[in-house]
Specification:
Layout: H1 2-13, H2 16-37, H3 41-54, H4 63-87, H5 91-106, H6 112-129, H7 139-163, H8 167-192, H9 197-229, H10 233-254, H11 259-265, H12 273-295, H13 303-322, H14 329-356, H15 368-371, H16 382-387, H17 394-415, H18 422-431, H19 436-463, H20 467-484, H21 489-507, H22 511-535, H23 545-569, H24 575-600, H25 609-635, H26 643-663, H27 677-700, H28 708-745
């Protein structure tokens, strides 16, 4: 236990997050040390503040994006500091200035996650501008020094990238390997843990969302840099690992089964235990690989994976011996399909192993122009902001809500004589998010973290008054706080509190007062944040779901067309298919995330929760069934498509088109003509029956061992017939749910 804990600590110290935490702390402290040595500490403080103001934008991404976003935040923070510094001369003018700046800066978050971090830098500048400063330095000099601090941080950023350019990539790949391992283990449990299936399904949705978020960042990092500066051997390795991880996710989604049907076929679930065990083995293997990637050690032995496949083959043989044909054929085919899936997953995992051991000869085949199609770009025109100037926009409502909370919090803190009322404002800008659930969760974590940090700091203060101890703890706590801010907000809040208390303890003799006001201000700010999100034009998640559901249906429809195309053309390396798959995965990830946010809203605001859960489940299951067909077509030789297949595809597309029309404004359905669906369904079932009869005849004639061609034909007929029938039923359910949803929520918002 202790050994594992020490390994985790060592892994943390090697992580990109700790590396950035150290660099950011060095960037803050260096000017303080240098200027203090020369007796000009008053110049060092605004430089350190300039560094601190621009740190939030240091998130994984290409160096080019980091430079541009940091330069924008430098200009923004300088302008905000200048304006607030002049406005401070009159309290009424100051409040008006804070209100205007808070509102318009908050709207910058319309430009995506990086935009929201730039907005946070601007809001942070408002807070730090409210802190009393040394009047021996003029306002313009002070603002100029803040700009120098920002440029100094940018220099540190560039140097850190030069020293360890692939640190973020390795960290993200390691995290993605670990989450993928967890995902495979949960999916294995779904096979046999019937009683926990609902909880496990919700857990898979959460893990899928996390994986798709990681994949998006990795696409930007790996493909953008590859396009801009070419590729090295190590770049090739990372891209190959990433491609294998995407394939593993698609294969896992492709193996989503109709579990109610599985429960009927395998009443004795012990048959499936070895399949679950192999999934667990694969998951553990990926999680070990995630640690090896960061520790640069030799990859572990592959025998555990191969032994697992051998056990699966033995399990299937035992099952074949225990059942009679033709009654047991469906169970045998299901197990064979599961075996094929797990063999493919083992192949993908072994491919990652080979890459990490430098023994692969695989090459990346797509061109740089193709790579750009996999990168999600963010538009930065002013029209984006203009589109959000409406009360229908959650970002607009959030900006207005945050502005009112900030003005009220600062006014309240000032009037009741709180020592540092800007701490209330700081707590508000850190905690408040468009979503009530996320704001409440962050508020709870902030309060708990602050109390833990305050108690620790108090214990140290009672034990010693040694300033050297305080300085060391202030520096160390800042490093850890920076390192944990993206991973564990509660822990980061604790270390930030420790840092603030010890910094103030160095400056003021009565440090206990600092502890008291720190906890009080945090509590007031957290309470205001939650109340504001609940009462001021709240953005309950059910109000914003329609566009997310529509997008998911649209992308599933496009993915269906891409699957149909490769079944017709047999063109396996099809770029359109891969792009459609990526967009469908992202759309379903956004839908899952929206549903998770809805579960965090108050119970009274979770309108028609069961209907929406069914909608989310249907769209996820539909995507999984599509991925199953796509994966099978890509990995097996298939027969020519028929008009029966086309009839199913057209019928399913029509159902999705009708559903989208019901949920959308000003849209007319475009319906495709096709062969009568009942006739097509009967024909496909007849095809499978014919093959089954042929196989029964072979057995009667003494040919007990099935030949490869017959086995593949049976698998194809079974899978395609079942998946098409399943997709048909799912699409009809999506349409029925869309009808109910449109009636209940009146999708026109009237």
């Amino acid at each position: 236990m202790v050994k594992e804990f020490l390994k985790d600590i060592l892994l943390f110290l090697k992580s990109s997050n700790f590396y950035k935490g150290v660099l950011q702390t060095v960037a803050v402290i260096t000017p303080l040390i240098i200027f203090n040595f020369f007796g000009h500490i008053s110049y060092a403080i605004p430089i350190a503040i300039g560094v601190f103001l621009n740190i939030p934008g240091n998130i994984p991404g290409t160096l080019r994006r980091k430079i541009y976003s940091t330069l924008i935040s430098i200009v923004l923070t300088m302008a905000v500091t200048l304006i607030v510094s002049y406005a401070k001369q009159n309290f009424a003018v100051l409040l008006l200035t804070i209100a205007i700046l808070s509102f318009f800066i908050s709207l910058i978050s319309a430009y995506g996650f990086r935009g929201s971090l730039i907005a946070f830098c601007g809001l942070l500048a408002i807070v730090l501008s409210l802190v009393s400063r040394n009047t021996t330095i003029g306002i313009w000099t002070y603002v100029g020094l803040i700009g120098i601090g920002g440029l100094w941080f940018l220099l540190v950023l560039c140097l850190s990238h030069w020293i360890a350019p692939k640190k973020d990539e390795d960290q993200l790949l390691s995290e993605t390997l670990h989450i993928t391992g967890s995902y495979l283990k949960v999916r294995g449990k779904l096979l046999i843990e019937k009683e926990k299936r609902d909880q496990l399904l919700i857990k898979t949705l959460k893990l899928q969302t996390e994986l798709n978020e990681k994949h998006e960042i990795l696409r930007e990092l790996l493909l953008s840099e590859r396009k801009q500066i070419g590729r090295s051997h190590f770049d090739e390795k990372r891209v190959l690992i990433f491609i294998s991880l995407i394939d593993i996710l698609e294969l896992a989604l492709a193996n989503t089964l109709d579990y109610s049907k599985i429960d009927v076929i395998f009443k004795d679930r012990s048959v499936l235990k070895e399949f679950k065990t192999l999934n667990t083995t694969m998951g553990n293997h990926l999680q070990v690989l995630s640690k090896i990637l960061m520790n640069k050690k030799k990859v572990q032995n592959k025998n555990e994976l191969l032994d697992g496949l051998a056990v699966i083959e033995k399990t299937i043989q035992n099952y074949i011996a225990s059942v009679e044909l033709p009654a047991g054929r469906e169970g045998i085919i299901t197990l064979r399909n599961l075996q094929d899936y797990q063999q493919q997953q083992v192949t993908k995992i072994r491919a990652i192993r080979r890459v990490m051991n430098n023994v692969t000869k695989d090459k990346i085949s797509f061109k740089d122009k193709e790579a750009t199609q996999f990168i999600t770009t963010q538009e930065y025109s002013l029209q984006i902001i203009a589109q959000h100037f409406t009360f229908k926009s959650p970002i607009f409502r959030h900006a207005l809500r945050l502005t009112i909370a900030i003005v009220f919090g600062f006014t309240f803190g000032t009037l009741i004589g709180i020592k540092n009322p800007y701490w209330i404002v700081l707590t508000l800008i850190v905690l408040m998010r468009p979503s009530y659930g996320l704001t409440k969760e962050r508020a709870i974590n902030r309060i708990i973290g602050t109390i833990i940090g305050a108690l620790f700091a108090l214990a140290i203060i009672f034990i010693t008054s040694n300033t050297m101890v305080y300085m060391v703890l202030a520096a160390v706590s800042l490093v850890i706080a920076f390192s944990l801010i993206q991973q564990s907000y509660r822990s980061a809040a604790a270390f930030i509190t420790i840092n603030v208390i010890f910094v103030y303890a160095l400056l003021e003799p009565n440090s206990l007062v600092v502890v008291k006001f720190r906890v009080l201000d945090t509590f007031i700010g957290a309470l205001l944040a939650v109340i504001a999100n609940y009462t001021l034009w709240p953005s309950w998640e059910f109000m914003n779901l329609s566009p997310v559901i529509i997008n998911s249906i649209q992308k599933n429809k496009a993915y269906l067309a891409a699957v149909s195309k490769i079944y017709h053309t047999k063109e396996i390396k099809n770029l359109d298919y891969k792009v459609a798959r990526k967009e469908a995965f992202l759309a379903i990830s956004n839908l899952n995330a929206a549903f998770q946010r809805m579960t965090q809203d108050p119970k009274s605001k979770q309108k028609e929760m069961q209907l929406i859960y069914e909608f989310v489940s249907l769209n996820n299951t539909f995507l999984s069934a599509l991925a199953s067909m796509g994966s099978f077509i890509q990995n097996h030789t298939t027969t020519a498509s028929s008009e029966n297949f086309d009839a199913f595809i057209s019928h399913i597309e029509n159902q999705l088109e009708n559903a989208e029309t019901l949920l959308s404004e000003n849209k007319t359905a475009v319906i495709k003509e096709h062969k009568k669906i009942e006739t097509a369904e009967e024909a496909l079932k007849s095809s499978f029956t014919t093959l089954s009869n042929q196989r029964d005849q072979q057995i009667k004639e003494g040919q007990h061992k099935i030949d490869l061609e017959m086995r593949l034909q049976l698998q194809e007929a079974h899978l395609v017939t079942n998946q098409l029938t399943w997709l048909k039923g799912l699409s009809e359910d999506v349409y029925r749910n869309s009808t109910k949803y449109a009636q209940l929520f009146n999708n026109k918002n009237t």
